[in-house]
Design brief:
Length: about 325
């Protein structure tokens, strides 16, 4: 992915560099942007005011993903640093902005004015306390009327966040909150790479798998200030999030279903060993026994596939190394010395 910066001279009031020219930025606020001219100036102004009020040396970065409404000019005139990201997608825009960030900490948030950048104070405090990922939680805070569709509020977000907590033992109750902060160096090592909206899940999943220090802070979600529909597509992006969660959990996708299938097949096979069984006039005989045997074989194959999938994911750097699997391979090897 290639990123180029639009050069401009920021206003003197927005300079965050020490007189000797050394980069002393503590915080970078990154906003992905695709045609956000209606709300971008408001978001930048709030972010800049928050930095000034807290005495934080920081910068505001607008990661532009191909806007055609003059968003780049607005951002530059407001004193933000504009990064042009050619590869399309929410994840690509954030990756491009984060790559250009110079702060020790990074806070990302949407540029549609649904998140209040005046609320970054608790994020900064938690990052300074040593947390590596600070997630906003809209459900612990306040969701204003009309800010979140009922489908997202009562089904989509709770369901997907619940699955994420179950699969990855994550402490996050709001996987898809767009306002979050993290240590830039730590997050860079996670090798984030998804291009679309599922980037939000990837960050939380990998942070949970690598046992980063994660904490949540309550925030307020407001209706976005745009006159056009949002970029988010409920069913398409919801499926992409669910698919991502399943692909990053070989145990829940293959191992546990395979073990359940093996157990059912074994129990039915043992039940039929003495001879045919009749329940409510229905005869369970050799054909049922055949299906039970098939269930055992398919379940076993699924368990083996789960192991191979996890080994491949670890070798490719998609999943962190598993200590138990490493100890197992020390004892079981195809090579003899």
């Amino acid at each position: 992915m290639t990123t180029t910066k639009i050069k401009f001279k920021p206003p003197a009031a927005m300079s965050y560099f020490a007189p000797n020219g050394e980069d002393t930025i503590e915080l970078s606020i990154v906003m992905p942007c695709l045609n956000e001219a209606e709300t971008l100036a408001t978001c930048i102004a709030k972010a800049q005011a928050s930095l000034r009020e807290r005495g934080v040396r920081g910068e505001v970065i607008v990661a532009d993903n191909g806007s055609t409404d003059g968003s780049q000019t607005i951002a530059a005139e407001m004193g933000a640093r504009v990064v042009s990201v050619q590869a399309k997608g929410y994840g690509n825009a954030l990756l491009g902005g984060i790559a250009e960030a110079r702060g020790t900490y990074v806070i990302v948030g949407d540029a549609d004015d649904s998140y209040d950048f005046s609320e970054v104070g608790p994020f900064i405090e938690q990052l300074r306390l040593g947390h590596e990922l600070v997630m906003g939680n809209r459900f612990k805070g306040h969701i204003k009327r009309g800010a979140m569709p009922a489908l997202h509020r009562y089904l989509g977000n709770p369901l997907l966040s619940g699955i994420g907590q179950l699969f990855f033992h994550s402490p996050c109750g709001d996987f898809h909150c767009g306002l979050r902060g993290f240590r830039r160096d730590v997050m860079t090592r996670l090798n984030l790479q998804t291009a679309g909206m599922e980037f939000a899940s990837e960050m939380v999943v990998k942070a949970s798998l690598h046992r980063l220090r994660i904490v949540e802070v309550p925030i307020t979600l407001s209706p976005d200030g745009r006159s056009r529909p949002p970029h988010l597509r409920s069913w398409r992006d919801g499926w992409r999030h669910l698919r991502f969660l399943l692909l990053y959990s070989p145990s829940w996708l293959f191992l546990y279903p395979g073990m359940l299938l093996m157990l059912l097949g074994l129990l039915i096979g043992v039940w039929l060993l003495p001879g045919p069984r009749i329940i409510n006039g229905i005869i369970f005989d050799v054909h049922t026994l055949l299906y039970a045997a098939m269930a055992i074989v398919i379940g076993f194959q699924s368990v083996i596939f789960a192991a191979f999938t996890k080994i491949f994911a670890i070798n490719e750097g998609l999943l962190p190394e598993a200590p138990r699997m490493r100890r197992l391979f020390r004892r079981i090897t195809l090579e003899v010395h």
